[in-house]
Amino acid sequence: MGRAGPMRGVWLGINQGTVCFLLLSCFEALCRVASSIPPLHFLSPPCTRTRSRVGLFLDRLLSGLRHPSFWELPAKPETMLTLLALASVVLLGIVPEQSQAIVIYTGWERHALLGSDIRLSCSFFSWRWTSEDVTFSWTYRPDGSRDSISIFHYTGGAAYVDNKGPFRDRVEFVGNPGRRDGSILIKNLDFNDNGTFTCDAKNPPDIVGRPSSVRLLVFEKVPIQAGVITGAIIGVVLGLLVLIVVIYYLMRFLVARRVFSLSVSKHGKKKKEGSQQRQIKV
Amino acid sequence: MLLLLLGIILLHIAGLVLLFVSTIVSVWTSGETSTADLWINCTTTNAGYHCDPASAGEWIQAVQALMILSIIFSCLSLLLFFCQLFTLQKGGRFFLTGTFQILASLFVMSGAIIYTVMSPQWVPETEAFGYSYILAWVAFPLALISGLIYVILRKRE
Hints:
By secondary structure, chain A is an alpha+beta fold. Chain A contains six helices and twelve strands. Chain B is built from four helices and five strands.
């Protein structure tokens, strides 16, 4: 698909930064080169006055380039690396902005009870701003059939619902095109509504995208998921077991403590009596 | 004495093995070309062997839970037996072990009864009960007898 949002921001930042840096350095370089030409010596004070980091870096770079040994021996690793990094960033940064496709999100499967209402949600992701000509359209394909009919269309700020097909008077637009939400509400479901609903959204000029489908299943009563009751029964019984064990040990502990405190108080009383008798004797 | 101990342990382990087989092997109902319950339903068609997960009805889930609980309690009772063998004072009874084993047998019984009563709702008349179901019914008296022996048994030397 393309690079995700934050990554793209970082990439753009790097691009902008590099372009600025390159422009500044080009300007500085031009300035220096121009001021070194004898007729343009008057340029040198203002050029050298810009004691920017770029200037210092360029100074070092240019002095290194001017040194004869630069061209004979292999250059210093730092300078070479910096040059290489700059070159690669420039080359990679001047990649034309790709137009990413529009991505449409709906649910995968929806379960509903007979006679109830269901909200089928549809939203999309697009690199462009939401245009005023954004369109949403829903089509329906019954189970076991190969034809699909259109049941909803939103365009030019107005929603058009089905008024002839199997969903007449049962479809309502509950989405918010400004927030990229094209959800519809289908009321009073029937078993004939089992099928696949496809949402297609277009955000001009971003129109290349794959429609997304959601499958609707209508039940008389919603079936219980496999394993829920099993887990519940096992959990309850084991929980009771643990509770009984805990209570048993707690009671034993409390009884033991009570017995201990009783025996201590008895021992204490005996000691007191003994000391009182001794006092009386004395 | 040692012989008695060995016999009791063997009885316990036999019951446990039967419980394991009955729970794990999914053949509580078997027909000519299909086996079903407790966990998967498999059928042999022209295209070959094909298995689906068992229906998620409440009663099947209850039977699953009870069988698993019976296994857990039987294992716990075996563990407790070895614990009590070394910690019980002379003349003491293996009450805890016996209780857990009897509880395990009660769970198997409830599971088998629930399956017997409720299975006509989802099993066609032409299909008969499979060997896992029979093993569950065999495991029940084994576990019960084992539990009673533990309750009656007294520790010597």
